[in-house]
Amino acid sequence: MLLLLFKLYLLCSRLHTLTEATSQPAARMTFTLRETAMKRFPLLGHHAPAGVVLEKEPNTVISAEQKHLKSFNFQNPRKTPVEIHVPWTECNKSDPQQTLKADCSFNIYLVQKMEANKLFLCGTDEERTACCDMDLSQKPPRCMSSANIQNVKDSIQGFIIKEGEPAALVESAESNLYVTYSGSEGDVGIHRFGGNRVGPTMHDREQHYVGLVPSRRRDDPLQGKVFGFYKEKNKDPGLYSDMWIPFVTRVCMRDRGGPKNLLQFSWTSQMNARLFCGEPESRRHFSELVDVATVEKEQWEDTRVYALFRNEWGMSAVCVYTIKDIERIFTKSTFKGKVLQPGRSRECVPDSTTIPMDVLNKIKENSEMEDWVRPVDNSGPILFNHHNYTHIYVDDSQNNRSDKHTVLYLSLHKGDIHKVVQKETQTFVIAEYQPFHHRHHHVLTFLLHPPTMKLYLTSRTELVQLDVGNCAQYGDRCGDCVLSRDPYCGWNGSHCTPHTQDMLQDVSQADHNICVSSGMVEQSQTGSKYPPGRDEVTKSIKLPLNSKYFLQCPVSSHQARYTWIHLERNTSRSLEDSPGLLLIPRMSPEQEGRHRCVSEERGYTRVLADYTLQLESRAGVKTSTSLLLGLCVTAALIQSLSC
Ligand SMILES: *[C@@H]1O[C@H](CO)[C@@H](O)[C@H](O)[C@H]1NC(C)=O
Ligand SMILES: *[C@@H]1O[C@H](CO)[C@@H](O)[C@H](O)[C@H]1NC(C)=O
Ligand SMILES: *[C@@H]1O[C@H](CO)[C@@H](O)[C@H](O)[C@H]1NC(C)=O
Ligand SMILES: *[C@@H]1O[C@H](CO)[C@@H](O)[C@H](O)[C@H]1NC(C)=O
Ligand SMILES: *[C@@H]1O[C@H](CO)[C@@H](O)[C@H](O)[C@H]1NC(C)=O
């Protein structure tokens, strides 16, 4: 029975290894609901939440739940979330200007945070769209109908926002809202609402938008632009061509469209360029754009866009582009077919309605650039592997420190999260979090609150708060802390804690020797070749002759090598694919003595488990003990069998 279970376990873990074999690099550590505290709320309605925003108070977030907002307080997860009714002006019964339907309500498809305690949201009832600039500090909250937003509200009414489309509200004396419309039918492209409504020209290409990045120019407001990122269905049906082509497009914020008879209310400043992500040497490239995340910088041209791609072979990659490089293509490249288009301005013009007819005709004809946009410094992907990622989120808040590092969060299509540290073109997968109860619902939104190091995640059914600054979970020694390479954490002399100045950490090299050289670690005091565990107690186990037994070792890092040491001898009996288990097939006098599980990673060794086996005297209570042991092991195995 025991052996059967063990074989089953091996088969199970082997299958697991096979399916994951190509998934290098795997995360160094895995944190499930068991290892790390994760607070959660169920989301009702099974409707993708349009967005999550942080409230003023820490630990409180607001999420859109179909027709209303809900405020979730993670400080007090037992408290029922507070429902916030949206007071749509369009549903005001005492306003004679509104033509009311019996059931006046809108499905919220867009939520954006404005200045402190104000939200901008839009919803649609399939016939029209309503927007509300809501002041949360008022009780009950009201739609403020501010003058600078009124034009957005008026001009968007007849447009139906689709679920999941990127949007950007650009606030000014006269605010504008940019929303995309994806698909193969209708006005596919970027739409602007506000004082001057402008939209895409008619075309028959299938496009799916994944991000909008506004780039305002304080030094030169006329040159303010909005960049859109999308994938386009390839019309070339060739056998070896890709299904999708990734693009970046840009429009000028001051564009008002053409004059009455040509390109009226359509973009005159739009240009498109292909994005390249791949390695020319290995001829490996990625063509399906999946998601983008932006890191804004003080200087507009330094702003970076992290783009997540997939290819048809089930691989994912991340490439990084700067706005500067994108702008260079739009200002310097010829148009597709090496066409020059003299007279067409690459800059934004003050009045687009005065562009000459011949130029407008060229704009209408061809707006695609000949040259492609390549990643920053002509690099390849900063990360690629066989995981199927669906979303990307970037935390750049660590970049203020001397050892500049960026942390990426990538969600896997089964709902898990990879936390990745990046410096230039180097990346390392620090951890995999498994935050959802429903492992088949992937992450829809990410939001980090850097001061508290809490990451908020939503799936269709759950809102989870993940403590990504939980440094204690890496271990209780300096070496564990340094090997984690987590830029959020450092060794303060006694604990692995959230990183501040004067703490030990080496994100780039994971060199644990800094622990010894800094004197922040106790030297090994025994004469043994292997360092002692902190709780230097050996667990005594008595076994009957010829009995079977398993010794267990707590496996933490997937990148460490685990060995069982018996009487200071390195035994080769540890199993390749289940390093945590040591099988004692038949208890005999040779098995007596100390068995220790030692992990080794980048030259750092430590004892993780320490047992002393003894033969039980034949007169002992043989059957009952071995039965009990068998039961314990069975329980442990069943637990680990859930692979
Ligand atoms: C509803 O409309 C009336 C009349 O225009 C106005 O006085 C009132 O403030 C509105 N209520 C809300 C919640 O906007
Ligand atoms: C990757 O995930 C997406 C979204 O969940 C899914 O549609 C696609 O089939 C997955 N691809 C593979 C190769 O598993
Ligand atoms: C980093 O610097 C930016 C601006 O210089 C600031 O807004 C941000 O709060 C800083 N982040 C941290 C973690 O200190
Ligand atoms: C190190 O961090 C731990 C836990 O955060 C704290 O209790 C301890 O006082 C800190 N030690 C020093 C020397 O700052
Ligand atoms: C034990 O031996 C194996 C195989 O020779 C080796 O890879 C491993 O590093 C050794 N472990 C220790 C802790 O010495």
UniProtKB/TrEMBL annotation:
Signal sequence region: 1-21
Biological processes per GO annotation: axon guidance
Domain Sema: 28-468
KW Ubl conjugation (keyword) present: no
Gene3D superfamilies: Immunoglobulins (2.60.40.10), ligand-binding face of the semaphorins, domain 2 (3.30.1680.10), YVTN repeat-like/Quinoprotein amine dehydrogenase (2.130.10.10)
Location, primary (coarse class): membrane
Annotated localization: Membrane
SMART domains, per the entry: PSI, Sema
Keywords carried by this UniProt record: Disulfide bond, Glycoprotein, Membrane, Signal
InterPro entries for the chain: Ig-like_dom, Ig-like_fold, Plexin_repeat, PSI, Semap_dom, Semap_dom_sf, Semaphorin, WD40/YVTN_repeat-like_dom_sf
Residue span(s) of domain Ig-like: 532-614
tRNA processing as UniProt keyword: no
GO cellular component: membrane
A Pfam family annotated for this UniProt entry: Sema
Family membership noted in the UniProt record: Belongs to the semaphorin family.
Name listed for the protein in its UniProt record: Sema domain-containing protein
Species for this entry: Pagothenia borchgrevinki
